[in-house]
């Protein structure tokens, strides 16, 4: 089993404002059972990634990014440049070197 899972996270459309205005991050996730010892899963999914993002990266106003255990409506999620709906949304099993992009389509006026 691999020790760490390497991903690139990208934030755009204003979502980066919730993450210290940083649009691109290279991250390494530990083994899932080390981060979430109570989880019965053994592979990282986007659902688990959102928990990690909330705990480690989200700096302000989580209600603008998360709703329940998912992203808020109006946040477009892309997995390797394709809509996450094609991959099972929250249940997509992350793979090494995946690029996960979060784009806000919500804009004030």
Structural account:
The protein is an alpha+beta fold and 109 residues long. It has a single domain (5-104), classed as Beta-grasp domain (Ubiquitin-like (UB roll)). 14% of the residues lie in helices and 31% in strands. The protein contains two helices and seven strands; from the N terminus they run ββααβββββ. The chain has helices spanning 32-35, 46-56; strands spanning 4-12, 24-30, 66-67, 70-71, 75-79, 82-83, 98-104. The strands form two sheets. It has a five-stranded mixed β-sheet with strand order 2-1-7-5-6. Strands 3-4 form a two-stranded antiparallel sheet. A hairpin with a 2-residue loop joins strand 3 (66-67) and strand 4. The mean pLDDT is 92. InterPro entries: Beta-grasp_dom_sf, Mopterin_synth/thiamin_S_b, Urm1.
Strand content: 25-35%
Quaternary = single chain
H/E series, N to C?
EEHHEEEEE
Give me the number of helical elements: 2
Would you tell me the structural class of the helices and strands? alpha+beta
Largest sheet properties = 5 strands, mixed
Instruction: Work out the number of β strands.
Output: 7
CATH architecture group name: Roll
Helical residues, percent: 10-25%
Output the CATH class name. Alpha Beta
Question: Going by CATH, what is the homologous superfamily?
Answer: Beta-grasp domain
What topology, given as strand order, has the largest sheet? 2-1-7-5-6
Distance between the termini: 48 Å
Summed over residues and divided by their number, the pLDDT gives a mean of 92
What is the 3D form? globular
| Rounded Rg | 13 Å
CATH fold type: Ubiquitin-like (UB roll)
**Low-confidence runs:** none
